[in-house]
Amino acid sequence: MKILMLNYEFPPIGGGAAPVTRELCRQLTIEGHRVDVVTMHYRDLPPFEQIDGFQVWRTPAIRKRPDICHTHEMASFLLAAIPRTARLVRENRYDVIHCHFIIPTGPLGWYLSRRFRIPLLVTCHGSDVPGYNPDRFGLTHRLIGPAWRFLIRRCEMLVSPSQSLADLIHRREPAVPVRVIPNGIFESPVTPHEKDKTIILCSRLLPRKGFQYVLEAVHDVDLDWRVEVIGDGPFRGELERIAAGSRTPVCFHGWLDQRDPRFGQLYARGAIFVFPSESENFPSVLLEAMRAGMAIIASTAGGCPEVVGDAALLVAPGDVNEIRNRILELIRSPDRCQQLRTAALTRVRQFSWPVVAAQYVRCYQEIIDAEKAKRKLS
Known about the structure:
six-stranded parallel sheet; 2 domains; 13 helices; Rossmann fold; alpha/beta; globular
């Protein structure tokens, strides 16, 4: 099967959907499929490279940061990607187009699908769904509403990584079918080490991620632990202000690529992972924390409970006292900590990429067969 994979973000740039795309491509290639990726160029990244057996083309764009992409930067990618992708399709005649994000990548996928009569599967990831994170995307979602509805009604298959995000789509478009396929993760490349007295926070630094509540929870508590913050974003300055004078030491590492040895070491030795987000789809950082064998505290928001199941302690978003109590509970009870680590390592196996990729391949075949049947009737 020949697959054209479209995502404006691809490692080493982007958030959680970027590594999801890379790992899905890797697994599909392992299974013998031909995968070509078209994504956004950034700074000194090569315009073309082969990664784990699949090919990646990076089209020109005006992106300024690896962790945040603004609307005009997305638009620059779409304009540059049209001739590149059209040329690739003419040369390779793909069996299916898999597009990540309804907006901004969806219009490119729809154009190629209709022009070359190739079935289109779209995976949404959260920020591309109206009602998700309205504080940041509310205006954008209102502006793109008509285009969003047009696209989800016309792609051959729409996929959501979580039921909570599928439910959000159905609030806007109840009649549109949505297939739920979770994000996956490969087995850990390293065995979890003996744990240090560290609490790990990792994500884009945005207000809705809730890291401010963790820093407030430990600010006035004398712990012989430290908080390690991995990530960057517009909220970093405010988080550093909150952390100033904290009795529990806080270290900001900035944005780290997942293949950076420092990232691997922090995860391998991290004891507790806290993810108190106020709005989430299917956060891959929780899969990574489970794979690393950390005891997890997660919020009840969005798809977080779907990811962790019974392998984590859950807290209400924004509840500083509950976050503090859960952290202290784990620090004071090594046995409970170990119980959650074991549960995490067990649960994460059900999200292995061979299992997840097999679901996508079945979807690909389903829409390919439907397209062939349509052509016979026309």
